[in-house]
Amino acid sequence: MDEYRDEQARELPELEAMKEYMEDIPIPSGIDATIWSGIKAGRQRRRRRVFSRMAAYTACLLLVVSVASVRFSPEVAAYVGEIPGLKPLVELIHYDKGLELAIDNDFMQPVALSEVRDGIKMTIDGIIADESRIIVFYTLENVDGQKSVVHFQGVRLTNIKNMSSSYGSAAFEEDWKIRQETIEFQPEDGTRLPDTLELEMKFNKVSEAATTDTVWHFSIPVDKAKFEGLKETYDLNQTVTVEGQRITFGTMTVYPTRIGVEVNYDPANTKKLFYFDDLRLVDERGEEFSSIMNGVSGSTLDENRQVLYFQSNYFKKPKHLYLRASSIRALDKAKREIKVDLEQKKLTTRPDSQLTLKDIGTSADDGQGILIFELKNDNPLDQDRMYSLFESNYKDASGKSFQSHMTGSSGNGSDTEYEYYIPKGKYQSPLTLFIQDYPTRIHGDIDLKIK
């Protein structure tokens, strides 16, 4: 940590002066060692399991992917080298060529606002923003060196209504020291950004000494002159048919941080089309700009309309551009309902033999029921893919609707286990769940010329 601080001091002398304001909050006494040990043991048992809270934003399709190796284009690397302190931030978005291009074209807005609360220093490092998307870069430092488990509990912009968000890691393990993360905000169409973003972030910290909830507030200035009016619009209005399923591509809007393509599915289609496996934009040089795979990948307008998001080529200004794809994950509409017999612990309806019900259990933490499924899938296209199998809403035999707010997944290779949590209550069996994504496909070459 000392090495990191020395590097920051060398790189950011002018910004460090802005970070000196801090507020120390004493850590209250609290949970005992027994509870702390139980928390650690529980986390060890679930170390290999990936959990996610189902988003309350029904308009968003969220895909969160771990960031691995770091490689930049020469242009981005050179640009980063000229601005002190930016390199660690740009490493967070190396997976998105459009954001690299945005940074290369001076789209990063440094912020450098810091506060210390409950032994944790939070710094809002910078933002990238346009009319379609806001990405906030932040750093957390464990300045008191105390072992703790930190949970991200929520974030919002208090001065903007109807704003959805997505973020990366939701929990930091007990031996964490420094974490750099991003938060993405998506304003509704037509929302005009204010001159200042009022950011509120909530964290829960569990240590041997105490359990505390901490809220940070930051006022982040926004240089709107960087992006206002920077967009290009194309009316595609082209329809294709893949294995009898009709798809119409409507308006495409190109922003500096991403591209949005409106997609309409014919209500008369016999299959529910979930996601394109390989939809991408290709220019005259053969360079591809693929779907956004870390952050918001699309927005649902209604049952048969979506806006799908791509990495942006706004700063490339291609002479020719094509929209291409070859496979789409899809399922017969009649097979989307899964019925779970709670007494017999079996599936009475399912899409195929790949999906089975392994068990029905109970969460030791809060008593929720857990439906444990297994999905067998050896398709090479799904080698590194984790499916969000079910929608959050489900119903029982009486027709009453309920909501699940957490799912889990574990395993690798061809066998993956999925956990679907249902709140405690009395249900009339069977339960009906609804497939949200599934590894069955339709195939056909899509090749549309945009310009």
TrEMBL record:
<feature type="transmembrane region" description="Helical">
    <location>
        <begin position="50"/>
        <end position="70"/>
    </location>
</feature>
<dbReference type="Pfam" id="PF13786">
    <property type="entry name" value="DUF4179"/>
</dbReference>
<keyword id="KW-0472">Membrane</keyword>
<keyword id="KW-1133">Transmembrane helix</keyword>
<feature type="domain" description="DUF5643">
    <location>
        <begin position="232"/>
        <end position="341"/>
    </location>
</feature>
<protein>
    <recommendedName>
        <fullName>DUF4179 domain-containing protein</fullName>
    </recommendedName>
</protein>
<keyword id="KW-0812">Transmembrane</keyword>
<dbReference type="Pfam" id="PF18705">
    <property type="entry name" value="DUF5643"/>
</dbReference>
<dbReference type="InterPro" id="IPR040680">
    <property type="entry name" value="DUF5643"/>
</dbReference>
<dbReference type="InterPro" id="IPR025436">
    <property type="entry name" value="DUF4179"/>
</dbReference>
<feature type="domain" description="DUF4179">
    <location>
        <begin position="47"/>
        <end position="141"/>
    </location>
</feature>
